[in-house]
Amino acid sequence: MTAQIIKDNVVYDIDFHTFHDLSVPIDTSGPRAWYLDHAEIEAVRDENWVGVVAEGGSVNFRNIAFNPHSHGTHTEGPGHVEPTVHSIDRAVNSYHVLARVITVLPRELENGDHVIYWDMLEEAVVNNRPEAVVLRTSTEDRRHKNWSNTNPPYIDAIAAKELANHGVLHLLIDLPSVDREMDEGKLAAHKAFWNIPDEVRMNATITELIHVPAEVQDDTYLLNLQIGPFENDAAPSRPVLYPLQKR
């Protein structure tokens, strides 16, 4: 299946058979963050029945216990940091937008922090004017990493604000948070990107714990941001990139 889109009077061809899935699945050996243990997937059992076909059950029937912020790729909205838990299920107006993949090397500070600043993103954002930005901070495979107590890199609040000022609606990153792991609850980058506490950008999202494969080049793609239909501040998600061919 192929299609065409037009952006700034430029025609792009899209082949939907070619894509890059950026999601990290929820799994009992998958990533984890925020001091939680692994997700749990267990068969339902009672005295008369078991939800395991291999053990004689008629179907496999399992419960899953997980936290979307900890156990895989997830998308969150302003309800993540506001008193009202606005549902992510109603946050997105369009699931297809143009996205720019940007590989960044966070800058090391004297205190050992590694930070992403606006000057690392400015050229790619200003020149391409994407609706979504996909940040890759490493080509390392971190899909089974325990991020707790590792002080991962994070985004400077001014950079997050500039992304918002330049019309970026969806920010995706291969880290457990856009903010510092231990930041005394400030959540400065989250709030700057969502423009909290002023006129909150209710249709803006942040997607964390993605995996951008090494073969994905820094370029502009069509992003399909698939979000699980949960009535919650965040939900598991599957961001998919489709390469564009300029005519």
Automatic annotation (TrEMBL):
Signal peptide: none annotated. Pfam families: Cyclase. InterPro entries: KFase/CYL, KFase_sf. One of its GO terms (molecular function) is arylformamidase activity. GO terms for biological process: L-tryptophan catabolic process to kynurenine. This is Cyclase family protein. It comes from Phaeocystidibacter luteus.
